[in-house]
């Protein structure tokens, strides 16, 4: 990858300063821009790494029946990443406002989790949502109904994600798009957590309030809640950074995995965008690379402050270079580069950073309508602490659901029905169908309707079979 343009960063700085972007975010973007223009490789090839083996299991470090230590809770903030719109599923508002189970949205469930934590422990655990420019207004409006719980005021709950300029792929200058100037900007990935929390003043504010530990996770992962055993372990260990990983299954083979860099023994995270095409088979080998990042992280805020100060205010995160067009709906529009960083990649920025293996019950994300269909099923339950978790009887293995193209958008799930997936291994669905009220899927089942007229799947048990309607 060789670009080697001698373009000045000044136009980017001017553009970002005029838009009110923080100095922390500008410096972070400048570093990433320099990597792009230098032509430095951002790939992590298979020969340079070795697999991570035998991570400490959550059961090994947590005591049975363990409860939260009040002093530790006082020093903890829960941060939820809430910047996504879910446009791939046809949504035009914050993804966290999507109804996920029993009439509750992601955001409603998160509020219940925080409320349960506060009520059951008596500790006013601090809570922040990292909103984007696209999700802030809708999210804060929805939170208005929870004013009596202290979870509605913008100044109390919002950490704002930054925007960064898209880069003209021909000139390496800020792209200009007069038809829609908002498309000149893009999100910088969830690695923006670090410049956002520093540049907004929240890092200093939290430290001044005696908050030392941050638990960070995605708003669409309802299995990710504060855990007393992990919090105690993290505090006692003195580790600067801890990642929750879990064992990969076939449904996770495209997700970023943990590895050890051979040159210095440092643990790192490799995303698919950083994998050379020739190594994709190894990347997707879930037996070789056994652990993937759940994007649930524990961060020692004092260590983060020290590292930022030592690095001139910028964590040296690996850069992900995305080739796009300025108007994503028009492939003929100007080619651009969008630079992203991954939050979990900070594991290689801290000496002594580590990871633990958590059960699948702490990982229940929704990226597609297939995920949503699965999460709404009886293979998941709502726990008393507000999590939506995989049933214990499934032993950490979620059912795999594959929906054909006509089910890509959320609206297409309305009226589809909810078959029992408690004992399902895999369900493949193709064509316009509807499930009757008492359908149970067991083992591996495929159901196909090759016609255009909607057909019903009759009541009954379907086990290890192919059904043609």
Give a quick rundown of the structure:
With 469 residues, the chain is of the alpha/beta class.
Care to describe what's here?
The chain has helices spanning 10-18, 23-38, 58-61, 70-74, 106-121, 136-143, 154-157, 193-199, 202-208, 228-237, 280-283, 301-310, 369-375, and strands spanning 49-51, 56-57, 76-82, 99-101, 104-105, 126-131, 158-160, 164-165, 167-168, 185-186, 213-218, 241-247, 257-261, 267-270, 291-300, 320-325, 335-340, 354-357, 380-382, 388-390, 400-403, 420-430, 433-435, 439-448, 455-457, 460-468. It has 469 residues and is α/β, with parallel strands linked by helices. The protein has 2 domains: 10-362, Spore Coat Polysaccharide Biosynthesis Protein SpsA, Chain A (Alpha-Beta Complex); 379-468, UDP N-Acetylglucosamine Acyltransferase, domain 1. The strands form 8 sheets. Strands 2-18-12-15-11-3-6-7 form an 8-stranded mixed β-sheet. The protein has a 4-stranded parallel β-sheet with strand order 21-22-24-26, with helices on one face. The chain has a 3-stranded antiparallel β-sheet with strand order 1-13-14, with no helix packed on it. 41% of the residues are buried. The mean pLDDT is 92.
Kindly report the spatial arrangement of strands forming the biggest sheet: 2-18-12-15-11-3-6-7
Distance between the termini: 50 Å
Enumerate the spans where pLDDT stays under 50 for 5 or more consecutive residues.
none
Number of strands: 26
Number of continuous helical runs: 13
Largest pleated sheet:
8 strands, mixed
Number of domains: 2
CATH architecture of the largest domain: Alpha-Beta Complex
The CATH homologous superfamily of the largest domain is called: Spore Coat Polysaccharide Biosynthesis Protein SpsA, Chain A
Could you say what the CATH topology of the largest domain is called?
A: Spore Coat Polysaccharide Biosynthesis Protein SpsA, Chain A
By CATH reckoning, the class of the largest domain would read Alpha Beta
Derived structural class: alpha/beta
Query: What is the CA-based Rg, rounded?
Result: 23 Å
Task: Based on Cα principal axes, name the global outline.
Answer: globular
Helix content: 10-25%
Strand content bin = 25-35%
């Amino acid at each position: 990858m060789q670009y080697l343009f001698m373009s000045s960063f000044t136009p980017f700085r001017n553009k970002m300063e005029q838009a009110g972007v923080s100095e922390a975010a500008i410096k972070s973007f400048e570093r990433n821009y320099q990597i792009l223009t230098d032509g430095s490789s951002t790939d992590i090839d298979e020969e340079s790494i070795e697999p991570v083996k035998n991570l400490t299991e959550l059961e090994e470090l947590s005591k049975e029946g363990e409860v939260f230590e009040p002093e530790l809770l006082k020093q903890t903030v829960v941060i939820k990443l809430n910047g996504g719109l879910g446009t791939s599923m046809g949504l035009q508002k914050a993804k966290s406002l999507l109804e996920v189970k029993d009439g509750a949205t992601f955001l409603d469930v998160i509020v219940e989790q925080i409320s349960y934590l506060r009520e059951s422990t008596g500790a006013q655990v601090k809570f922040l949502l990292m909103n984007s420019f696209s999700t802030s207004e809708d999210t804060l409006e929805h939170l208005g109904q929870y004013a009596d719980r202290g979870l509605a005021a913008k100044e109390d709950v919002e950490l704002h994600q930054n925007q960064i300029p898209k880069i003209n792929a021909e000139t390496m200058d800020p792209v200009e798009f007069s038809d829609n100037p908002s498309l000149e900007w893009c999100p910088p990935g969830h690695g923006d957590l670090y410049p956002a929390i520093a540049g907004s003043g929240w890092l200093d504010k939290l430290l001044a309030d005696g908050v030392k530990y941050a638990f960070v996770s995605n708003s669409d992962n309802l299995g990710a809640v504060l855990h007393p055993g992990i919090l105690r372990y993290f505090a006692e260990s003195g580790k600067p950074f801890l990642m929750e990983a879990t064992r990969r299954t076939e449904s996770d083979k495209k997700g970023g995995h943990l590895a050890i860099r051979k040159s210095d023994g440092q643990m790192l995270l490799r995303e698919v965008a950083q994998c050379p095409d020739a190594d994709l088979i190894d990347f997707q080998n879930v037996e070789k690379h056994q652990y993937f990042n759940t994007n649930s992280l524990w961060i020692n805020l004092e260590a983060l402050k020290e590292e930022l100060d030592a690095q001139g205010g910028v964590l040296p995160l690996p850069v992900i270079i995305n080739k796009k067009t300025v108007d994503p709906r028009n492939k003929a529009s100007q080619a651009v580069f969008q630079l992203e960083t991954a939050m979990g990649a900070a594991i290689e920025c801290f000496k002594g950073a580590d990871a633990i293996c958590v059960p699948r019950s702490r990982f229940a994300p929704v990226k597609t309508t297939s995920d949503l269909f699965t999460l709404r099923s009886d293979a998941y339950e709502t726990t008393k602490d507000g999590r939506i978790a995989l049933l214990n009887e499934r032993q950490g293995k979620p059912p795999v659901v594959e929906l054909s193209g006509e089910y890509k958008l959320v609206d297409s799930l309305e009226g589809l029905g909810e078959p029992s997936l408690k004992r399902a291994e895999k369900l493949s669905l193709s064509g316009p169908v509807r499930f009757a009220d008492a359908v149970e899927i067991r083992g591996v089942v495929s159901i196909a309707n090759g016609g255009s007229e909607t057909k019903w799947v009759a009541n009954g048990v379907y086990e290890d079979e192919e059904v043609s309607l």
